[in-house]
């Protein structure tokens, strides 16, 4: 994954773009992975770990009634998380993760379900996936999935 992360940082640098992260299910793993790359400080502005519904409401400014209606694991919530973190940090790119790493299902949704939000300038993307494994594996898979999707979008794929 090191090469993949280097590719992401290089791509962001080449395009003169900055990035911010809003993470729930990954608990900061996306931000950690990006900042493990030397030179990432030129593109990474910051991240928010909004693990609880209250953090999503109070820090990421997601409407509480929307969370009560949809739950926290939802494609629209992922999109709003990415859009709002982008605005909070003044970044060109905002990314988000929300999902269920287990061991128990929540909100009637199964372990392994995740949504990844990516907002680049004014373009919004949301991806759904389902992963299997223990908590650590699911979180790693979600992180790698997000990084791959972001590179694909940035490179016009």
UniProtKB/TrEMBL annotation:
Q: Where is the CinA C-terminal domain?
A: 4-152
| Top-level taxon of the source organism | Bacteria
This chain belongs to which protein, by name?
CinA C-terminal domain-containing protein
Organism expressing this protein natively: Caldisericum exile (strain DSM 21853 / NBRC 104410 / AZM16c01)
Q: Which Pfam families match?
A: CinA
Q: For this UniProt entry, which residues form the secretion signal?
A: none
